[in-house]
Amino acid sequence: MFNVQCSIHSAVQELSSSIIRSFDWSSFNQPSLISQQHKQALQKVIPPVQKDATQSTTTTRSRARSNSDVTNMAQNPTSAARRPTSNRKLTASESMSLDRLLRDGPPDGDIIGSLESMRLKILDQGVKSDSDGMSSLRIYIWLILLNAPTLETDAYLSLIHRGASPAYSKIRNDTFRTLATDPLFRRRVSEASLIRLLNAVAWKLHDVKEARAEFRNLQNRQIMEAAIHGSPERNPHSPSMRYRARALTLTTEGSDVGAGEPGTYVQGMNVLAAPFLYAARSESEAFMAFHRFITTEVPGYVRGAMDGVHKGLALVDKVLAIVDPKLSLYLIGKGMSAEIYAFPSVLTLCACTPPLPEVLRLWDFLFAYGAHLNILCIVAQLVILRNSILSSPSPTKILRSFPPLQADTIKEVTLTIITKIPDDVYAEIVFHAK
What we know:
Blueprint: H1 2-22, H2 31-43, H3 53-63, H4 77-82, H5 98-104, H6 111-124, H7 138-145, H8 153-160, H9 168-175, H10 183-188, H11 191-229, H12 239-251, H13 269-279, H14 283-297, H15 299-302, H16 307-323, H17 325-333, H18 338-341, H19 343-347, H20 356-369, H21 374-384, H22 386-390, H23 395-399, H24 407-417, H25 423-431
InterPro entries: Rab-GAP-TBC_dom, Rab-GAP_TBC_sf
GO molecular function: GTPase activator activity
Protein name: Rab-GAP TBC domain-containing protein
């Protein structure tokens, strides 16, 4: 049994490495192209809706009157994903199960087609797991979807052996209460494991911060020397200086995207890291996935000012106003902006809402089609609660803690919501966490 597991582990690592090394996602770095890619990928598997705004609004209101009607808001994603299209040729990977695709790798070297097929299978079938949400393949699926590089265990151990990071005291103040009421998490993941992972990530981010500060100091000194001596090669705009700047960017790429300094730890990272440790088969795998996630998918969430989280909260309000104006106006009238009730859900990608197995299933969907869709998933939960909220004189009590996650229902409602979002707003959603 151990040999079989090792064989699967080796094959999956090989697939992950193959995808990472063979396909360069940098070609998708144009903002308009990224937003179109994410939206079009989902629109391929959901039915078209009427374009008339009045009809759309009316439909939204009538379909969300009660929780029992929620599943009618969207065509079942299973049937939608299976719907044949005349202009699309079936790929070899579509005839393979998700397990086999991971074990054997992309057929005929078709990496792009295999990734698309993997996403569809996750949406259609989900990732097979037991009642506790455990799956031997989930962490490898996440690593592939996150395009995470391979990591030697020794590299993770070297970060641990450096001892306490500058953020260690902050980490210790948070870890003991991480998912404290979740028996599944407490049984599988120790506080010591969570401390080690967060401390290692803090060291990694600290090193990036130090490297950038050192580079800026060097650049400033060279600018001063260039001004004094008139040396053209030390000018910051010279080819040599541009090359050095590019080299630093490559060695720290993904550690901070956009304006502002990268942080080393912010409150809430402990909850965000928890599902990675729960799903992973080793700390080093969880570290690689978590570090990749926060530095490429949601760097704006972990910067000191957490500007990405606040942008996300504003987008929850904006999307709700588009999808359900009546519900939006009701909450605004009660003084209930997303800043008040949705901060934990935005920051942690709904990991703050139990049960944990449902969080993992929702994350499968988010990693497949983009973590930015969490904004729509939060709005979907509000739509599901619509009847209860509108009938409550004090919705604060309802929204103080969201009801237990139902990943499949949330995904179905999200697939409907996405068809109602204008392209410019969707582009904001895609980039809000960068």
